[in-house]
Amino acid sequence: MSKYAIAIHGGAGTILKSLMTPEKESQYRQGLKDAIEAGEVILKNNGSSLDAVEAAVRSLENNPLFNAGRGAVFTNDGKNELDASIMRGDTLEAGAVAGVKNVKNPISLARAIMEKSEHVLMCGEGAAKFAKSIETEFADDSYFFVQARFDQLQEAKKTDGVFLDHSGEANAEENKKKFGTVGAVALDVHGTIAAATSTGGMTNKKFGRAGDSPIIGAGTYANNNTCAISCTGHGEFFIRSVVAYDISCLMEYKGLSLKEACDEVVHKKLVKIGGEGGLVAIDAKGNIELPFNSEGMYRASLKDGEGIEIMIYK
Amino acid sequence: MSKYAIAIHGGAGTILKSLMTPEKESQYRQGLKDAIEAGEVILKNNGSSLDAVEAAVRSLENNPLFNAGRGAVFTNDGKNELDASIMRGDTLEAGAVAGVKNVKNPISLARAIMEKSEHVLMCGEGAAKFAKSIETEFADDSYFFVQARFDQLQEAKKTDGVFLDHSGEANAEENKKKFGTVGAVALDVHGTIAAATSTGGMTNKKFGRAGDSPIIGAGTYANNNTCAISCTGHGEFFIRSVVAYDISCLMEYKGLSLKEACDEVVHKKLVKIGGEGGLVAIDAKGNIELPFNSEGMYRASLKDGEGIEIMIYK
Question: From the CA of B23, how many Å to the nearest CA of chain A?
Fold first, then answer.
C-alpha cells in the first residue's frame, strides 16, 4: 500500500500579519484544519483522492471565511456567482461549472457534471437547470449572506473597484490584491491524484466575468503521470498562462521535478507578466509544493504518518 | 519584410463526399475563399495577424453555412448560444466569451473583452451587458434563424440527441459527429501570429454547455515563440487534453516542429482517448499544418506569393 497525502489552499494575496487579529488568525487556521481533516479521513480509510479533494473543498465552501460557496463575495448586482472545477488524474476526466447561483457546494456540481453528463463545462442558468435535474442541494440567498462580504461590496462600489479579495479587514487597496479561491490536491493509497478548485470570484464583479477556477488546464489539472494542481490568484493571468497544465508539461516534456516546475511557473513566468497568486501541487510520489508569489497564502498540507502543517504567511 | 500566411477552418467531422451535392460543395468552397481573402487583404497591406484572424472569422460567422454567428445551431430551447475566443502571440493577451446570445459577431466581442476590459472571459447575460456597454452590434432572433438549423433541432429532439453537427444533409447518426466551429490562424509581416475561434456549439444542447472554443489553452492559443492554434472537434476531449497549449508545449519544451507536435496531439493523443476533430496551426516562420482525425475538415490556407488552397475531404 502506498502512502497518501493532501494539500489545500484558502486563497492567496496581501495577507499581512500586521492586519490580522489573533482571533481571526485562529479561525482561519481552524478552517484549514477542518478542511484537510475532512480529506484525510477519506484517504486513511483507503478512499479515493477524488472523494478527498471534494470533501476538503466542500468544507471550505461551507465556511463563511473563505471566498467559495457560502462565503462567496458579492457581484455588482448583489448576487453570488460560483465557479468550480475538478479533475481526476487516472482517467483525465474533468467537470466544471461557471457562474452558477444558489448551489450550496459548487464542487459537487462540478463532479456531477463530470460523472452524470456527457459534458465538461456548464455555465450560468443552464448549469443550475442541470443541477436541479440531479437533485443538487440548493440554498437561498440568505445562506450566502455574510455581513463582511456585503460590507466589502459597499466599499468596492464607493470607488467602482473590483476586488479579488476574500477578507474584510484590510483597506480597499489591499483588498484588491487578495485572491479568494479554495482548492485541494491529493494522492490516495491507490496511487491516483486529483485536484479541485472553487471560488466566489471578485467582489463587485460585472459582466459574468470568470477567472481560471472553472478552466481545466488553467486553474485545475490532474494527471497521474505528472501532477495535480489547484490555483488561486489573479485569474486573467492564470488563464493566459495556462498555469496548471504548464506545470504538468514542464514535468512531462522537459523532465523537471514538481518543485522545479512550480518554481519556474509561479516565481518566474507569472512574476514576469505581473500574475500574482499561488497554487497547491502534488505528484504521484506524494511530493507536495505550495508556491506563491504574493504576501501570503492560506494553506495546509499533510502526509501519511506526519502531522498537519498549517501556514498563512511567507 | 517577412512573408505573411493564413489558415482557416469551418469545422471537422464526418463530412463525406458521398453525401455532398456539387452545389453545396461549391457554396462551402466559396465561403472558405471569401473568409481567407478577408484575412489576406489585411495581411498583404501590412495589417496585423489579429485583424486578419478576426476578419476571416467574421466572414465565416456571417455565412449561414457555418456553425458560428448567423449560422449557429439551435439549443434545446430554440436559442443560439455563441462562444468565441481570440489570442495574440506577441503579448499573450486573450479574450473570450461563452454562452452569449444575439451578438452578431462573437469574435469581435471576444476581442473587445481582451482590449476594453480587465478580463479574459465573460459568460452569458453578463457578457451581453458588457457588449451593450461598448456598442457591439446585436441582431435579433430572425437574423439567426436558418431553416436547415431549425430542421436539425427538430431532428435532434426526436431522439433527444445532442448533435455536434453543422450540416443539414446527413442523417442523425452522422450529424452527431460533425463539429461545427470556425477558426483562423495567421502570421503577419511583422512576425506576429494570432488565433481566433467561434462556434454556435451543439444542436439541441442543454444546460449551458460550453466546449473548448471559449477556452484559452484548449480551443485557442497563440504565442510567437511557438504557434497559433484554432481547434474544432468534440470539445469535451479537447478541454481535457488542453489541445492548443499542448501543441505549444511540445514545441517549447520538447523541441518538436509544428508538424511533429500537431501529429502527436491530433493523430496520437486525441485518437487514444476518442477525441475526434482537427485544428489549424501556424508558427512564426509561416509553416502551416491542418491536421484532423475525422473524415473531413472544411479548411483553406494561403501563403504570401502562393495561391489559396481549399480542401474539404482527406
Answer: 35
The residue type at B119:
H
Residues belonging to chain A: 314
Per DSSP, B268 falls in state: I
For the packed helices B49-61 and B22-44, what is the interaxial angle rounded to 10 degrees? Answer: 150
ipTM: 0.94
- Whole-angstrom CA distances from A18 to A25, A155, A295, A300 are 11, 21, 12, 21
| A254/B239 Cβ within 8 A | no
Catalytic position from the list A181, A199, A203, A220: A181
The residue to which cell 483588498 is assigned: A175
Identify any residues that bridge with B178 across adjacent strands, giving them in sequence order.
Answer: B13
**Inter-chain contact B130–A206, Cβ cutoff 8 Å?**
yes
pLDDT digits over A87-126, tens only? Answer: 999 999 999 999 999 999 999 999 999 999 999 999 999 9
Q: Which amino acid is at A166?
A: H
Q: Using beta carbons and an 8 Å cutoff, which residues of A are at the interface with B?
A: 87, 92-94, 98-99, 117-127, 129-130, 162, 206-211, 215-218, 221, 235-236, 239-242, 245-246, 249-250, 253-254, 273
- In the numeric block, the cell 494522492 is attached to A187
Dig out the grid coordinates for B263 from the structure: 501529429
Q: Strand, coil or helix: what is A302?
A: strand
**Full set of structural domains in chain A with CATH:** 5-313 (3.60.20.30)
